[in-house]
Amino acid sequence: MCAEKDFEAEKATGHSCVITAYHHKSGYQKAKDREDKKKREEAVISKTVKITELFPTISVNVNREDPPSNSPLPCVGQCGLPGQFGHEFERDNSVAAVYTQSISHSESDDMVDAETLSQKPEAQAGSKGDDNSFSTDIGQWFEVEINDTFCNFWVTRGSECCQHSNADFTSSMQIDGKQKRYCSQNLFYRVHSRNGEKVPRSWLCYSPATSRIYCFVCKLFSADDNSFSRNGFCDWKNAASRIQSNENSIAHRNATITFSQRVQARGCVDSAIVEQYRQECAYAKSVLERVVSVIKFLAERGLAFRGHTEILGSSSNGNFLGILELIAQFDPLLSSHIDNHGGKRKGSVSYLSSTICDELIDVMGKQVMKTILSEIRGAKFYSISVDSTPDISHVDRLSCVFRYVLNDGPIERFVQFLSMKGHGAEDLFNSLYSFLEEAKLDIKYCRGQSYDNASNMAVKYSGLQARIREKNPLAEYVPCFAHSLNLVGASAVNCVTTVSGFFDFVQNLYVFLNASTQRWELLTKGLDSNQLVLKRLSDTRWSAHSAATKALSKGFKNVKTVLENIAEDPEEKVEARSTAVGITKKMDQLEYGILLELWTPILDCFHKTSLKLQSPQLDLNEAVQLLTSLKEYVNSL
After folding, report:
1. At 430, which helix (H) or strand (E)?
2. Tens of pLDDT along 413-466?
3. Which residue(s) pair with 628 in the sheet?
């Protein structure tokens, strides 16, 4: 029946009646409709007769910095459209009352009391007049407005009136697939990581005009070109993470510091922002104190920092994270920090990452270097000692040591490993001299230099010491006494074939017994409790041979008995039995017995003298006396 009536109505009127389903408008179409509506309203306002044209011009005598009296008064359209500027019509009533009162005064007097006109309404959210009328809609701040006057105004005013955290967020809708997303009041708060307290984000502002959010301090003081400081942010799906990222960014922190400094300069400190910044600084300082203490502990002991993994709670995460986790068991602050910030993705500030150790070690190293160089400059005069040695990567490193005297006594400091381009005396001099220039240490204040007896160091006419004396004749060269003693002893032994063969015998004896765990067990069981096990000859310090000869001298009979048992043991290999027989025959020779008894006391004196020469408290007079005494002892044998 309804269909028949519709057909009859269509036939009678001559119009077609088509039933269609309602289509929802897209976000773009709604935004376009709002823009068209706004333009239509502006067109109506522009054609409306201004109220000032309906009344005669009023002469106003103003005693403060207000606009000139002949400037037109704000019209109703400029003061009253709530949809355009975000204010209610009640303010328009107050404006009309003021203007009506002013006009009534003009009928009795040509002058209007300045106090009457000084009762101006509050700054409107769209007016762009004097510095007391800047827009409270942050989305309407154009780049030409953000000058020093503009910034000073908002430093005084604060961000509260620009936040619009209680605004209607319907217009901020964004369509994400089949889901609609809006700006939320929750974005204007962050949850405190330690006590769960909701802390307001006083820097976050919403623009009703653009339906976007902005950063108040970044908009004013940041030079970074990002959405929070320029065109606004509206990706509501990722809003929480992006807001937190901006909040922790260096640009935002610098802008906050600039804002706080300006507030203090104008005597209107925003206590909330400053207190928040102070608390964050105190918290970061407390965490860094613990992290730096762990780094210092590991660095001064030469322990490894990282492990096979950097996962918190793992037993393979290395010493750095492991010690921090140990401290956290007794430290609530560090425990809370690890729980809230540990294991975060790259870019999060936690002070627990693998790179923070290197960065802090570098900072501490520079500070230590600065302190040492400052001490050297304060002492004025210094001496140097350098030596090169290959590192684990087979690269030669020139170690540099400075000696100087302070009020507390003599100081010896290792300063740095210097890079080397070659092993010649000129290469060594260039590396050392370049470092002295970079450190701003004048070579004319060098009073001593000490190296080993290598030709590139000690040669009188072309060595490193000679090149330094060309620059400063007062830099006296003193060779290393310990190194000189080592060279003298080694050279003396190599000059006599019999003595050289004796030390080969001592080394071969140790190698034979040490090559088999079974033979070494026989040796340890065969020695008395007060006897020393055999020692190998030292490759670096000749004076350390004394340990090998002393052990053999004290346990000579027991060692010989062990060798005889090995030679007679049928379970031993033929080669081992033959070697044991050969060593036993040498031990039976009178010559080896005499050499053992002769060199044991000599090497003992050599070794004790060498250790004394390496003492940090040694002075030149004592070193000369030690060498003289050793020489007299050897001559007396």
Report:
1. helix 425-438
2. 999 888 777 778 888 888 888 999 999 999 999 999 988 777 667 666 677 888
3. none
CA distance 388 to 384: 14
- How far apart CA 152 and CA 262 sit, in angstroms, is 8
Burial 323-361 (b: 16+ CB within 10 A, else e): bbbebbeeeeebebbbeeebeeeeeeeebbbeebbeebb
| Cβ–Cβ < 8 Å for 173, 162 | no
Per-residue pLDDT reduced to its tens digit, 581-631: 998 998 888 988 899 898 889 888 888 888 888 887 888 888 889 889 988
Q: Extract the tokens encoding 156.
A: 């005084």
* Helix, strand or coil, per DSSP, at residue 477: strand
Give the span between the Cα atoms of 79 and 77, in whole angstroms. Answer: 5
Burial class from Cβ neighbours inside 10 Å (0-12, 13-18, 19+) for residue 427 reads middle
Which is it for strands 189-191 and 198-200: parallel, antiparallel or unpaired? antiparallel
Token reading at 40? 């239509």
**Whether pLDDT at 159 is above 50:** yes
Q: What is the spatial distance between Cα 492 and Cα 622, in angstroms, rounded to a whole number?
A: 24
Q: What share of the chain is helix, strand, coil (3-state, %, to 5)?
A: 55, 10, 35
pTM: 0.52
Tell me how far CA of residue 632 lies from CA of 485, 603, 625, in angstroms: 14, 14, 11
Cβ proximity of 198 and 189 under 8 Å: yes
Q: How far apart are CA 230 and CA 237, in angstroms?
A: 20
The amino acid at residue 442 is D
